[in-house]
Amino acid sequence: MSGENGRLTSGERFRVEYLLQGDEAAARATAREVCVEQTVEFPEDLLPRGPIPDEVVGRLESLVPAGPGRWRAEVSYAVETAAGELTQLLNVILGNSSMRPGVRVERFVLTDSLLAAFPGPRFGRAGLRRLTGVERRPLLCTALKPMGLAARALAEQAHAFALGGMDLVKDDHGVTDQRFSPYAERVPRCAEAIARANARTGRSCLYVVNVTAPVDQVLERAHLAKRAGAGGLMIAPALCGFDTVRLLAADASLAMPILSHPTFGGSYVTSPQNGMSHAVLYGHLPRLAGADATIFVNYGGRFPFSREDCAEIARASAAPMGRLPAIFPAPGGGMTAERIPDLLEVYGRDFLLLVGGGMHRLGPDLTENARRLLQLAEGM
Amino acid sequence: MSGENGRLTSGERFRVEYLLQGDEAAARATAREVCVEQTVEFPEDLLPRGPIPDEVVGRLESLVPAGPGRWRAEVSYAVETAAGELTQLLNVILGNSSMRPGVRVERFVLTDSLLAAFPGPRFGRAGLRRLTGVERRPLLCTALKPMGLAARALAEQAHAFALGGMDLVKDDHGVTDQRFSPYAERVPRCAEAIARANARTGRSCLYVVNVTAPVDQVLERAHLAKRAGAGGLMIAPALCGFDTVRLLAADASLAMPILSHPTFGGSYVTSPQNGMSHAVLYGHLPRLAGADATIFVNYGGRFPFSREDCAEIARASAAPMGRLPAIFPAPGGGMTAERIPDLLEVYGRDFLLLVGGGMHRLGPDLTENARRLLQLAEGM
């Protein structure tokens, strides 16, 4: 397969930064093992000489201290190892090393040629602002809950929230196709309810449908949502695979904004020494896969995400990434009037604020609750 | 949606056992929060009275000590919450609680009605023994590597291994559709090479093809493998989603045995306090999804899986699970003559031994290396 010059690859390489533990010798040994594990997974001394060890095996580009007993290793990989597949790219980036404690992916930088293999976000921040007609303030989103309510009751809720001024109203991530509110009944009812509210308010509230589903039903459900008049899709990449986000984003006949949901994936970030950084799991990866907004749990809520974890996600959602547009960080929870100055400091004005069960805490009139939240946001 | 009796559900409930941290009061509070988080995700005091809190919210069935500062909570959920979807079942079992340190899924027990929603393993241990013609000893499997070799070279390797007596020869999990050895060229070549060896030996070595791929290409690649004469499929559920295993297992026009691969999923088990147990990630889940063998890393190798972790996987692969047959645990690595007695003690004779790069360590003649491994196995 090698060309006339004996090369196997173009020479273009993407880079992954790993956080490693131990003293310098241990970290260097781990880094070398990662280079092999993530590519050839083969005894190095038995590799045939030539382009496989020279090009295909990962290359340790640098190893620098990152605190006491911690090291930052930059490893480069030939773009060809990823085969232009999101699944295989993730396999090279973390793959078997996910089973190795003390190896954590901190960030990655792809080449333009590799980025070109992925559609990226179709809307991004600018597109979502255009669709919702919200120019400067944070976007407001809530969820239809609790699971167990009938489709008709969820549609009433949707109507009330849209009437009050929410910009996006989404399905709860646990509501899929239960007999309490079957998908084929719920989605048209909620879409109609929100369209009716929009006709009254003149606003453009988007109904965002949860299409987290058996893999062979995701596209079908998304197209049903589109036909019903829904305005967006939500999917949980840890349940369906990140590549399913890519599949939805790439579908020009859908052309709907996508929210990624963090359920089932938290194990990648619960340890500061393993898995991935918050920036990678909630920033780089959803954006690369094509999500337009990335939901995660806000600091100061019922999950232990720190303020810095959240700031890191916000930065990753907008940092330069080839031609890919910035996407919205979508922190869930923790919205009270007193917290607004700090939220603005962490996220700026470019975020999508998700208020779920908390919308019901303010009183029984959901339209009024949405109005109050909108007033807060308009003051931001 | 409630029937005449005001009920929302059938009353059938499945059970999940969580390992929790802290003193008894803290563990009980966490358990209660899990019951809510995994279902309605809604302020409990604001739920409408009646069947939603009574039936839809998870129910803490028991809380018992599990060591100093550790508790075992058994929570039951209405089967209807899972909607007969593997994706949603995983969402109820772990979902958002994956973001919460100190909550770990230890095991789960489904009802027969819920199990009936999933095809389960088509072959299991008995089916794989029938296909390979191996009656009593452990099955032997190796991988075609390293990434970077051309299809022709990989096919030669496949031929040599099959000639020497390997029962399964699989693609390396990092080899997908790279330009070094494109899928459409590699798979027919390797299948043909193994068929040629089988014709000579009279054995039934299976070529197991890696179909870990962009989600919209998985089935297409699997059918190409089938047409080419391959004998099995391998897929990484953490990359493609567990439901993709279900999709492959359910496809009667394929009817090929499936090996699940652990790449990218290790973050669920790297901490003993979070994520899932080894039994769940490598035992219950692949089996429920329909894998016939579950690959994981053997104890004493380059990853820190303990002997007890591996024994737990082996037990989960065969423990009663409704109508689902037992599947093969497939430990990778660590096979030397001296270790055989201990391997037999942990796994019995019912396992699939995966030897990857180590097959090349024994010398340049791969057929001879396979013969030596087969002799060891036949002595088991």
Order of helices and strands of chain A: EHHEEHEHHEHEHEHEHHEEHEHEHEHH
Largest interface: A-B, 86 and 85 residues
* Continuous helix count of chain A: 15
Biggest pleated-sheet summary of chain A: 8 strands, parallel
* Estimated share of beta-strand residues of chain A: 15-25%
General form of chain A: elongated
Q: What is the CATH homologous superfamily assignment of the largest domain in chain A?
A: Ribulose bisphosphate carboxylase, large subunit, C-terminal domain
Biggest sheet strand order of chain A reads: 12-11-9-8-7-6-5-13
Which structural class is indicated by helix and strand composition of chain A? alpha/beta
Distance between the termini of chain A: 59 Å
| Fraction of residues in H or I helices of chain A | 25-40%
**How does CATH name the architecture of the largest domain in chain A?**
Alpha-Beta Barrel
List keywords for this structure.
homodimer; 380 residues; alpha/beta; TIM Barrel; 2 domains; 5-stranded mixed beta sheet; 15 helices; 13 strands; 38% helix; elongated
Write the layout of secondary structure elements.
2 copies of one chain form a homodimer.
Chain A: E1 13-21, H1 24-37, H2 51-56, E2 59-65, E3 70-78, H3 86-93, E4 103-109, H4 112-115, H5 124-132, E5 139-144, H6 151-164, E6 168-171, H7 183-201, E7 206-210, H8 218-228, E8 232-235, H9 237-240, H10 242-250, E9 258-260, E10 275-276, H11 278-289, E11 293-297, H12 307-316, E12 328-332, H13 340-347, E13 352-355, H14 358-361, H15 366-378
Parallel strand pairs in A: 4-10, 5-6, 5-13, 6-7, 7-8, 8-9, 9-11, 11-12
Antiparallel strand pairs in A: 1-3, 1-4, 2-3
